[in-house]
Design a protein that fits this description.
3 strands, three-stranded antiparallel β-sheet
Amino acid sequence: MATAKKVAKPAKKAVPKKAVVVKATRKAHTGATFVVKQVRSQIGIMPKTKATMRALGLRKIGDVNTLPDRPEIRGMIARVPHLIEVSKKGA
């Protein structure tokens, strides 16, 4: 039985990597903001509601976070009004 010789594959050519340019797509938010404070405990609430609280940056009673006035933030605030106090700040 004859053995077949292995043929070496040609080496791949090195492709120069393109320079990655990162552009700032969002400008710094300068409009109105919300100051959100957690006033009630998260014990016994639904996991989805707990996740919303974490997305708002609140972990425990007394935590305060300043968030921009955007539709997605307003939606999160509307989901957990029984756990937080909201005050408007800014222009």
